[in-house]
Amino acid sequence: MALSSSGTGTTGATPDDASVAPAATSAGRAPGRGLLPLLLIGNSAMYTLYIGVGGVLLALQVEDVDPANKVSNFGLIAGVSAIFATIFNPVAGALSDRSGRRNPWILGGGLAAVPAMFLLGSADTILLITIAWCLGQAVMNVYQAALTSVVPDRVPISARGKASAAVGLGLPFGSTLGALIGAAFSDDYRTGYLLFGAIVAGAAVLFTARTREERLPARAPLPVKQQLAAFTGALRDHDFRWAFIGRALLVLGYFAVSGYQLYILQDHTVLPGGMEPEEAVAVLMPLTSVAMVVSTVLGGYLSDRLDRRKLFVGASALLSALALVIPAVSDSWTAMLAFAAVNGLAFGSYMAVDTALVTMVLPKAQDAARDMGVLNIANAGPQIIAPFIASVIVSVSGGYTALFIVAAALAVAGALAVKPIRSVR
């Protein structure tokens, strides 16, 4: 597919630049040697905050405020805040498209994470926690929307698997760091939150200082009605729509379980004697991360080598379904360890290859950031629904077994959704 701004030149670029102008990448040149490590750092910082805050500190903070209603309160906060993520991601993508720049949005969103985390650490009621985390989701999705658009902007199709692997590795690295920091600061929310904000801010400064982007032609603003039509127009494209559906289904199942990981370890899993749930998270995350690293690298490399994206995406989604069945049939610590390893293998490969697939089915090159933002609704949107679905399933069934089964079924549906895609093998 065509990359953004194919008519842009490369004036001022040097072979050592971390970024490569869109015209150069569309001609088949590999991305600058510094870009992939910077993408890894930028995405690792993002997931460090998402996992450390959303998966550890926020759950503990909610439990401390109202222990009796922790499941429903956490579901409410996660769902409402995800609405902000859903709104801000495509909007921020469209704004960066219009400005012709990515770096200012990456820098602005990253720096804004610090005051947002300060507010979250200062919150002492469910309402204030909800408001503060909504603001945190908003600024993080400004950062994420611009960072996500770097791959279709600056990387040729022949290297998309490698670039997507660099992006995908951010999840296991960030998850591990986030879980470890979250566990370390489980009794000191304010300091932990500030550290997470500082990590994202530092990554944003590093990325924007080390990359020089070719400014794309500025685009005239559209009336609001036309902007809304443009957002929904991307979903009228056949292949993009099915990629969106597949991603949404798998992410829905994934976050229905992962969002409640701490509570699952508290109320479902039989932990070894003396092990606290926070310590269990710090064990599971590195295990998952190692598996993700292996499958992300192999998936990205092999999908490039074999030129087969749908095969890897579908197989990874089915493996995720298998992983979710393991803790459904056993509540042992061994079962959770097996789940963490297999799910890491599945999700790492899925995210690496599916990201490459998505960049190949974008409807319009000149709207890459906006359309990636629309696709990111498939990431953020299910997070709105997942907490409510999960809390209802847990409340009605009286446990987490049914939740694992429903999540597995969603993963199977996500695997089947890639089959109708026509333009990618």
TrEMBL record:
GO terms for cellular component: plasma membrane. GO terms for molecular function: transmembrane transporter activity. Signal peptide: none annotated. Keywords: Membrane, Transmembrane, Transmembrane helix. Residues 36-425 form the Major facilitator superfamily (MFS) profile domain. The keyword S-adenosyl-L-methionine does not apply. The chain crosses the membrane at residues 38-62, 74-92, 163-185, 191-209, 244-263, 283-302, 311-329, 335-362, 374-394, 400-418. It comes from the Bacteria. InterPro entries: MFS, MFS_dom, MFS_trans_sf, Tet-R_TetA/multi-R_MdtG-like. The keyword Isomerase does not apply. Residues 1-27 are annotated as: Disordered. It is found in: Cell membrane. It is a multi-pass membrane protein. Residues 1-12 have a biased composition (Low complexity). This is MFS transporter. It comes from Streptomyces vinaceus.
